[in-house]
Amino acid sequence: MPKKQFILEDNGRHTLELTWDSMWRNFTIHFDGAPVDTIAGGGKGLRAGKTIALPDGSELDVQLKNSLVASELAVVRDGRPLPGSATHPLQKIRQAYTIIFIIGVLNLVLGLVGLVSTAEWVLLISGGWITAVFGLFLLILGWLVKAKHALPALITAIFLYAADSLLGIWVVVAGGEAPGIAGLIVRVLFIIGMAQGIKAIQEIGD
Fold first, then answer.
1. Model-level pTM?
2. Between the CA of residue 50 and those of 27, 34, 94, what are the distances in Å?
3. What is d(CA 77, CA 93) in angstroms, rounded to the nearest whole number?
4. For a FRET experiment, which of 25, 157, 173, 186 has its CA 20 to 30 Å from that of 59?
5. How far is CA 42 from CA 2, 35, 49, 69, 118, in A?
6. What class, spelled out in words, does domain 3-81 have in CATH?
């Protein structure tokens, strides 16, 4: 049974636990280990959302929200997303730097492989040292986003990846071929995922 647990206070005095079965069925809210409410209707019921009065007097809003990237379970207490929930700013920042790290590692590895390999197919897809340096630079930007919540680093990473994507599309089209739809979709989702971190960093800084 999937579950998600939250600590409601810094001193750990109260805990909130959400449990459910497959397809979001039997969704139950537990407060300090005791069930306090349920949300019926599976995914449909969660998408409609529900407001629950918790025993400590606070108000909890639970809703399944769909975005272009993925479905997100929003858990909001007294108007603020709970730390660790999908819509909390720190989670959005984590999503952003994770994507940057993935792109950076892939480019770094691809570039290094191109430097040592003599296989023709590898040379065709690898940019050699340029790709490796690009990947290394993205890793540095990712670290700045993770450790410093650096907004300029995030914006730079998005711009570079978008520019690299457009350049790649231009090269493919110039060669008389059509760009792969799956690759385009992945790139768009990566850009959207990183862009969501911009607002999150701004919220953390307020």
1. 0.87
2. 11, 18, 27
3. 20
4. 25
5. 14, 17, 11, 21, 54
6. mainly beta
How do residues 82-134 score in pLDDT, each as one tens digit?
999 999 999 999 999 999 999 999 999 998 888 777 666 565 666 788 899 99
Q: Where in the chain is the domain with CATH 2.40.128?
A: 3-81
What pLDDT, on a 0 to 100 scale, did the predictor assign at position 143? Answer: 98
| 154-163 residue pLDDT tens | 999 999 999 9
Residue 173's pLDDT is 87
| Helix/strand/coil for 26 | coil
Three-state DSSP string of 103-159: HHHHHHHHHHHHHHCCCHHHHHHCCCHHHHHHHHHHHHHHHHHHHHCCHHHHHHHHH
Looking up tokens 């979709």, which residue turns up? Answer: 185
Cα 154 to Cα 145, 183, 200: the distances in Å are 6, 22, 11
Strands 59-66 and 50-53: antiparallel
